[in-house]
Amino acid sequence: MQSAGWVKQVIDTDRPAKVFIDVGGVGAGVYDQLMHMGAPYSTIVEQVNFGSAPVEPAPLDEQGRRSGGPLNRRAEMWMKSKEWLEQPCGVQVPDSDKLQADACAPGYRYDSLTRLLLESKEDIRRRGALSPDEWDAVALTFARPVQPSRFNRKLEYPNLGVV
Question: Dihedral of CA 70/72/76/78: which sign?
Fold first, then answer.
């Protein structure tokens, strides 16, 4: 499978602490192949199901009942990515039209318990827009906190050379 080979190459080159893969669709096969490759891939790769329940409990309302928050994991991770973008110190996002379009692609609504529900990829495609795969990848980085690992690439700074 070509995708599993690409992820393997990224792991070999960049040595990330974790790689999160959505196993709700095609990603299940990619995840399975990487798990069959054994260590280090089986220790670095972690499955996430966009349709599963959120990890963090919904906030409590004035009466102490659960209300609000995201409906599923996908909405939870997209909410975390939105909060990240709103950080006062700012964040760096590649200047990519596709990435920016993906971040704005899904519509949303709230259910009767005021939980956030993102528009499904199928509904996005049905209205003629492209699936927001690139921002889904960004959102996956918010699946859970990860301890930083040793970064493998040499950093190059203008007028300073390689560090």
Answer: negative
